[in-house]
Amino acid sequence: MYVTASWWVVAVLITLVYGGIVQDRLALPSVFSYAMAFVFALLLYASVLVHELAHSVVARRYGLPVRRIVLYVLGGVSEIEKEAPTPGREFWIAFAGPLFSLLIAAGAYGLFRLADPFSVVGELLFQLWVANLLVGVFNLLPGLPLDGGRLVRAAVWKLTGRPLAGSVAAAWGGRVLALVVVAVPLLLGWAAGALNPWGTVWGLVLGGFMWMGATDSLRAARVRSRVPGLRVRDLARAALAVPADTPLAEAERRAAVIGATALVVTDSEGTPTAVVHPGLAAEVTDARRAWVPVAEVARALTAHSVLPLDLEGEEMLERLTSHPLPEYLVADADGAVHGVLRAADVNAAMSGRE
């Protein structure tokens, strides 16, 4: 779990705003009132943590790895490393968080009804059920990056058979919600004849984060939609294999003749040992290129820098992200050099650039 510094900003704001409310309700000294207000901030984020844990547990049960849980200014996020493979699993991963929050809210509310509402215990139970109700209901709003948006995505995905269509619908739902969040305090202020500064600022901040979250989700979905079409065979650059002592200028001349745009370094037996890195090669001046050997501007091959020719889609992406390198040697089933795959080319293909 990772807690960002922005959490403390919100915790302080909640303490300052809610402290006065507690003081009026329970007639406690100001120190105790603000201490209880800070407890409310802790309960709110504890509720968010439980909410995210519910997502993570269901994701892990479906075999999806979870990197970590991050708590930040507007709540939390479970960093699940893979997409759900079906709309049904997407639904249950998304719904687990709000469901668990609402169940806790219901239980805390039942206990609150049995307690003295003007006691410390009663106030803490009140804080607990309100915090989980807020977390549960807010996250069910139908737009990304909220869980309700993921439910919309799952529903549209199920109806159309296209996960990208679900993401587009849910992202635009999130953008509409962002505009509503910004507009509501402005409309209320207009109706009352005076703006509420806190409500207006919070609406702008929350709406802005929701808009950016929806936009990022849409961009990520479009990138992910290109993953199934990625193939090492198609993205690998034609490469020329040359001995380690070949001058860089001579190697580049030979490569140009056959139309190769990458260089592979071999030992005396013709076995690939390294790949020339274009950044290092570009630093060699024209005057030195005729005598600097390719081995000096190459990166040695490792067990993780050789890719099979038939690698593609999710398997290819997982292989690259688990061992990120600037370039990889691509070899066929017999171990013969097919080409060189550069990470920059993969990123360009995923982003839709030529």
Average of pLDDT: 88
Q: Percent of residues in beta strands?
A: 5-15%
Number of helices: 12
Q: Termini, distance in Å?
A: 38 Å
Poorly predicted regions are none
- Kindly name the structural category: alpha/beta
The dominant shape is elongated
Order of helices and strands: EHHEEHHHHHHEHEEHEEHEEH
- Helicity range: 55-70%
The largest sheet is:
4 strands, mixed
Number of β-strand runs = 10
Q: Provide the gyration radius in Å.
A: 28 Å
Described by its quaternary structure, the protein is single chain
Name the strands of the widest sheet in spatial order.
Answer: 4-5-6-7
Question: Would you spell out the secondary-structure blueprint of this structure?
Answer:
Layout: E1 2-3, H1 6-26, H2 30-61, E2 66-72, E3 75-80, H3 87-114, H4 120-139, H5 147-160, H6 163-192, H7 197-225, H8 232-235, E4 239-243, H9 248-258, E5 262-266, E6 272-276, H10 278-282, E7 298-300, E8 306-308, H11 313-322, E9 327-331, E10 337-342, H12 343-351
Parallel strand pairs: 1-2, 4-5, 8-9
Antiparallel strand pairs: 2-3, 5-6, 6-7, 9-10
Helix pairs in contact: 1-2, 2-3, 2-4, 3-4, 3-5, 5-6, 6-7
